């Protein structure tokens, strides 16, 4: 828990931005009013968190869920906030699900390399070699024998 009461305040820049967005242009808010709004917002967040925690404890959980927060807001009798909160929570869950599916798809695409005949998806020689090095000792022996045979042929052609 916070050691000093000032630690419980929300950042002034955030409060100022929220106030500006909520009010019409040209409306000025005094420093004292911003401070009072900030304190009220902090108290609301602490109270909502405490109520949500009570729901989590009743369910024998240590982690607060979105449903705990919705139940807390309902218990605090802020029914006008329930619909927008549910919509935001649903949108968040849809976004999270979409990100998870996209991440899984990228992971699957990485795991299964595409192999198109002769296209840029070709992963290299069929024997598994990399660059100029053969993949196995057996392949190296085959390659050495082929080079030796080619050298013998070239020498025989020169001798003719």
UniProtKB/TrEMBL annotation:
Residues 94-160 are annotated as: Disordered. Residues 94-118 have a biased composition (Basic and acidic residues). Residues 134-160 have a biased composition (Acidic residues). GO terms for cellular component: CHRAC; epsilon DNA polymerase complex. The keyword Metal-binding does not apply. Keywords: Acetylation, Coiled coil, DNA-binding, Nucleus, Phosphoprotein. One of its GO terms (molecular function) is chromatin DNA binding. SUPFAM superfamilies: Histone-fold. It comes from the Eukaryota. GO terms for biological process: DNA damage response; heterochromatin formation; leading strand elongation. It is found in: Nucleus. Residues 9-73 form the Transcription factor CBF/NF-Y/archaeal histone domain. It holds the Pfam family CBFD_NFYB_HMF. Its main location: nucleus. InterPro entries: CBFA_NFYB_domain (IPR003958), DNA_Pol-Epsilon_Subunit (IPR051377), Histone-fold (IPR009072). CDD domains: HFD_POLE3_DPB4. Accessory component of the DNA polymerase epsilon complex. Participates in DNA repair and in chromosomal DNA replication. Forms a complex with CHRAC1 and binds naked DNA, which is then incorporated into chromatin, aided by the nucleosome-remodeling activity of ISWI/SNF2H and ACF1. Does not enhance nucleosome sliding activity of the ACF-5 ISWI chromatin remodeling complex. Component of the DNA polymerase epsilon complex consisting of four subunits: the catalytic subunit POLE and the accessory subunits POLE2, POLE3 and POLE4. Interaction with POLE4 is a prerequisite for further binding with POLE and POLE2. Heterodimer with CHRAC1; binds to DNA. Component of the CHRAC ISWI chromatin remodeling complex at least composed of SMARCA5/SNF2H, BAZ1A/ACF1, CHRAC1 and POLE3; the complex preferentially binds DNA through the CHRAC1-POLE3 heterodimer and possesses ATP-dependent nucleosome-remodeling activity. PANTHER family: DNA POLYMERASE EPSILON SUBUNIT 3. This is DNA polymerase epsilon subunit 3.
